Amino acid sequence: QVQLVESGGGLVQAGGSLRLSCALSERTISIRTMGWFRQPPGKEREFVSANRWSFGSTYFGYYADSVKGRFTISRDNANTVTLRMNSLKPEDTAVYYCAADRDYLTNYAHSGEYDYWGQGTQVTVSS
């Protein structure tokens, strides 16, 4: 059973930056897709970003249009994936969730594809 723990959320002013981390209970070598999702107040969970690892340790990053150019997903080490968020906007306010799956997911933007989830971390952007 893979366990995920998010950290790094908080309160920031518009235009500021935050870094979210997702720590996995096992080496990410066995995890081929990692995703970040968020749930704004009163709204459904939505895709933010994802990484997929192919054989040979090459990874590919994907982003929702709303965060493209502002957010960056990266694999820092074998057990940690980070989401760097710059130029934050009030509409980025949400609970952010880390997700993982052992498969190389084709539909990485669909939350139902992921087997493992973190507990979520709150990000609040003030105007």
Question: Can you put this structure into words, describing what you see?
Answer:
The chain is mainly beta and 127 residues long. The chain is 0% helix and 50% strand. It has no helices and 11 strands. Strands 2, 4, 5, 6, 9, 10 and 11 form a 7-stranded mixed β-sheet that branches. The protein has a 4-stranded antiparallel β-sheet with strand order 1-3-8-7, with no helix packed on it. The radius of gyration is 14 Å and the shape is globular. The model has no long low-confidence stretch (mean pLDDT 91).
Main pleated sheet:
7 strands, mixed
| Terminal residue distance | 40 Å
Number of strands: 11
What kind of oligomer do you see?
single chain
Q: What's a quick, concise take on this entry?
A:
This protein is mainly β. The chain has strands at residues 4-7, 10-13, 18-24, 33-39, 46-53, 59-63, 71-77, 80-85, 94-101, 116-117, 121-126. Helix content is 0%, strand content 50%.
